[in-house]
Every structure is written in structure tokens, then in C-alpha cells.
Design a protein that fits this description.
This protein is mainly α and 142 residues long. Among the domains are: 47 residues, no CATH class; 49 residues, Arc Repressor Mutant, subunit A (Orthogonal Bundle). The chain is 39% helix and 7% strand. It contains six helices and two strands; from the N terminus they run H-E-E-H-H-H-H-H. The protein has a two-stranded antiparallel ribbon. The relative contact order is 0.08.
Length: 142
């Protein structure tokens, strides 16, 4: 192909063999393409023979209607189903906002992952416990 063109191929140019036989170098079988055109051509050829993926819709079976149990005592829910007490959450927020502790250091103090501390500080978990900024303790050293 370089002899036919009278120049070297540029970096972005590729010689495509039309019939797919890389040893057949006759000019009728050669086509000059850019690299992106060549890749696009072969991807289209490759995808012709793939069967399209068809997902069957999942059929959900109806659930039984059971009456929900509602607990009247919210203190029971907070104290028995959560890892921290409201006092500990306020302490976490105080250490961060007043004492300038890092999230990592607070996580080590309370033996919890720093992503959980971040969720507490952003209000994504323990939403009902609001830190007002009042100084509860004067000490910041642990």
C-alpha cells in the first residue's frame, strides 16, 4: 500500500484487508482507513453475530398482609437497636465541632468506621439527635 501511495503510512492510518485474508495483499483487497474507522468497522462486524440479550421480567409474588407491630416506647428502640446512645452522639458531634478532632481520630476513640462518623455529622444517621453547640464539657483531651 505504501508503494501504491508513494509515501509512508501516517500514524493514524491502517490498511484494512477487505476479504479478511492478511496474506492477500492485492490492491483490490486493500483499503486505507483511519485507526478509529478500522476499530469501528470491526466492532460492528463482531456485534452482528451476537444475540441480543433479552431480560425476562421478574414476576413478584404477592406478599401476605400481616399486621405491623408498632412499638409505643421510642426509648426502647433507640437504646436496644442502635449502637450509640444519644449522649455518645452528642459527644461525637462536640469533639468534631468544638475540639476540632478529625473524623479518623473520633472513629478510633469510639471504635467505629470513619464513614459512620461522617454520616452522623452530616445528619444521615441519628437525625433525631440535634447538637445545639452548647458546651457540655470543657475538656477536649482524650
Amino acid at each position: 500500500m505504501e508503494n501504491f501511495l508513494g509515501r509512508k503510512l501516517e500514524f493514524n492510518e491502517v490498511v484494512h484487508h477487505i476479504n479478511g485474508d492478511i496474506y492477500d495483499n492485492s490492491l483490490d483487497n486493500l483499503q486505507l482507513m483511519s485507526r478509529s474507522e478500522h476499530i469501528r468497522y470491526h466492532n460492528l462486524e463482531r456485534n452482528k453475530f451476537k444475540k441480543p440479550k433479552v431480560k425476562e421480567p421478574k414476576v413478584k409474588e404477592p406478599k401476605e398482609n400481616k399486621p405491623r407491630k408498632i412499638k409505643q416506647n421510642t426509648e426502647y428502640i433507640i437504646s436496644n437497636q442502635r449502637k450509640f446512645t444519644p449522649e455518645q452522639i452528642l459527644e461525637i458531634k462536640r469533639l468534631y465541632f468544638e475540639c476540632n478532632y478529625s473524623v479518623r481520630k473520633i472513629g478510633k476513640l469510639f471504635s467505629i468506621d470513619k464513614s459512620a462518623i461522617t454520616k452522623i455529622l452530616r445528619g444521615l444517621s441519628y437525625k433525631e439527635i440535634i447538637y445545639t453547640g452548647e458546651k457540655i464539657y470543657n475538656k477536649c483531651n482524650y
